[in-house]
Each structure stands twice: as structure tokens, then as C-alpha cells.
Amino acid sequence: MGLGCDDSLEAIAIIGVGARLPGARDAREYWRNLRAGTESITQLSEQELLAEGATPAEVADEYYVRAAGLVPHVRDFDADFFGMTAREARFSDPQLKLTLEVSHAALEDAGLDPTTMTRDVGVFGATGLTRYTDLYINGRLQQHDATNVVFNNPDYITTYTSYNLDLHGPALTVLTACSSSLVAVHLACQSLVMGECDMALAGAANVELPYGHGYRWGPGSVRSRTALPPFDAAANGTIFTNGAGMVGPQTVVGRGGRRRPHPRGDPRDALNDDGRDKMSFSAPSVTGQSAAIVQAMSVAGLTPADISYVEAHGTATAVGDPIEVTALKPGVPVAVGQ
After folding, report:
1. Measured CA angle at 206 (ends 202, 211), to 5 deg
2. Residues 130 and 152 sit within 8 Å (Cβ to Cβ)
3. In sequence order, what are the beta bridge partners of 21?
4. Between these two residues, 31 and 1, which has the higher pLDDT value?
5. Which among 334, 324, 325 has a CA at the least distance from the CA of 291?
6. 80-124 pLDDT, tens per residue?
7. Residue 151 clears pLDDT 90, i.e. is over it
8. Mean pLDDT of all residues in the chain?
């Protein structure tokens, strides 16, 4: 997927960003960590793991990896600020609460006040697996309790955000696995150009549960045995971690407001699927990814020399990352019409 720009359509710019990421309370701290080479994966001690509920047998297992990406203040939530009761907040999936926080932060970063703005704002978002009910609150709520249904169901992640922040644009939950947040951006841009909203929020939240635990590695697992970061020469797998982010795209031609120095964007970005043109369902495809890249550059009117930053999946697996890097290389055949 990629963003482009065409002179015949209004340009789209990111005017606000909200984020809570491992080792970073916001996007600015995240970029500072990147520039400084700060490692944000936490190596957990035995005492920390046991305090979070890991069993002594788990921690002592030679294949147990004591590492996690922890979000600062993930347990701190101002229920009063968001108009929630203490009970609602207590029984809410942490992913819902993070979504509310980063959505409000993105609006604030854009210089907007949800209580006074008049424009229609759409919300397009996603979450990881919802396990909060099973792991933490079963037995404390009746099976059909409304709180359990609304605050622990990914279907409501965007509609509740719109309700809570009083936003009146479309609200869509997007579930396409690893691509969910970028597909949410795609749909947000489409909604902007169709005039369904004046601004949008697009992104995702993920909280791995049980929180603060490591994980058990097994031969052939996609997970990392050593918890090394992606693109490290010795990296050998993925660390599923925690965090949330929302960006605020808005059409900017003929509108006031400040621009942020982000890549210009257009709703005609490239989004495709590989079909069966890959070695397995979970593997990427060189030709499919190359086709998306070429299409994105085409609608943007850009050449490879214009690109200074590429976001990668970064799984640190022996199959996935090399395929994605190969798709960026010149000379990869791309079928016409893909």
C-alpha cells in the first residue's frame, strides 16, 4: 500500500498524530528513541513476570522468552475525562481505552477541540485479538451484561470512539490482520474524497494479553527465540508487542489549518492482494507487493529517487522480510493491470 497525489484531486495531509508505543508516550518520544537507537523491548525479570501472574514453571522453562514491548502508563486511564464510569473503565478492553486516548491526542495535535469543533470526523480503526473478557473479567459479569458486550467487542471500537468524542462522520472497524491500520488509512482517504467527512482518524491499537508476560518459543515458530529487533543481522522472529496510534488525514486544498511535514497523500493509493501467487497463505508475494508499489508511485507521479522512507512489515522472519526487500528492488516483473 502507498499514498500518492494527483493534481486533479484535493491533496490530503496528516494534520494530527496520537500514539502510545513501547517506551514512548507519544510520537515525538518514539522518533527520539529511533534517532538515539534506544531499545524499547523490555527484558523482564523473574520477579516482574511472577508479579504479573506468570507461573514459576513458565518462567523456568528454557524456551520461555522473557521479553515484551510495554506501553508507558497503559493501566492509567482517566475515566472521568472520557465520561466513563469507574465500572465501565474497569471492565473495558485496554485496546478500547488506548484507542480513545490516541484519538483524542490526534485531534489535540491537530489543534482541534472535540467539544467545540463543527466538522464531521470519521473514525477508521482496528484492534488485536480481544481476550480481556476471557482472561480478566469472566465470573465478575453476567454473560449478557451490556458492559461486557460493548466494551469488549472489536465491532464497537470505532463507533464507541465516535460516540465518546461526539464525532459525526462514518465509523468503521477494519480487520485485515497485519495490514489493518494501513487499510484503515486507505478507507479514511476514500471517505474524505467522497465527501463523507471533513477529517478522519485512522489507526489501530493492540494490547497483548496477559499483559507484561513473555512467551514460549517453539521450533518453527514465527516468534523470536532471542527477542532481537527486526533487521538485526541475527534476528530470528517476531515479538508481538503493544501500542496504539491514530493519524488525522484531512483534505488541504482550499482549507485553512496548518500542514504537517508528512508525505503528501491522495485517496488513490494502492491496495491489492496476492491471491495464490505465494508459497503459503501467510507469506508475502514479491510480484504482488511490487505491483502495489508501482501503482502507488504512478498515481503519485513519483519515481524511486523521490522516496526517502519505506515502512516495512518487519517480521524478522527468514521468509517474510527478504521477500519485502526484494519487492523494492528494480527489475522485478510486474504484470500489467495488477
Report:
1. 160
2. yes
3. 24
4. 31
5. 334
6. 999 999 989 988 999 999 999 999 999 999 999 888 887 799 999
7. no
8. 85
Q: Which candidate, 27, 5, 30, 31, places its Cα nearest to that of 16? A: 27
Q: Spell out the long-range contacts of 141-145 with Cβ–Cβ below 8 A and sequence spacing 24 or more.
A: 141/91
Q: Which residue has the higher pLDDT, 230 or 338?
A: 230
CB 40 within 8 A of CB 333: no
**CA 173 – CA 184 distance, rounded (Å):** 8
pLDDT band for position 10 (cuts 50, 70, 90) = low
Taking alpha carbons only, the member of 320, 328, 129, 131 closest to residue 238 is 320
Q: Measured between alpha carbons, how far apart are the two ends of the chain, in Å?
A: 13
Residue 207: helix, strand or coil by DSSP?
Answer: coil
Report the phi/psi class of residue 300: left, alpha or beta, with left for phi > 0 and alpha for psi in -120 to 50.
alpha
**Residue keyed to cell 508511485:** 297
With cell 489549518, the residue in question is 257
Neighbouring residues of 293: CB distance < 8 A, sequence distance ≥ 6: 2, 270, 327, 328
Distance, in Å, from the CA atom of 31 to the CA atom of 101, rounded to the nearest integer, reads 19
Burial (CB < 10 A; 0-12, 13-18, 19+), residue 141, is middle
Q: How far apart are CA 88 and CA 73, in angstroms?
A: 19
pTM of the model: 0.87
Residue 252: φ, ψ to 5°: -120, -15
The pairing of beta strand 121-127 with beta strand 171-173: parallel
Are the beta carbons of 223 and 240 closer than 8 angstroms?
yes
**Helix H or strand E encompassing 326:** helix 320-327
Closest by CA position to 208, among listed 173, 238, 231? 238
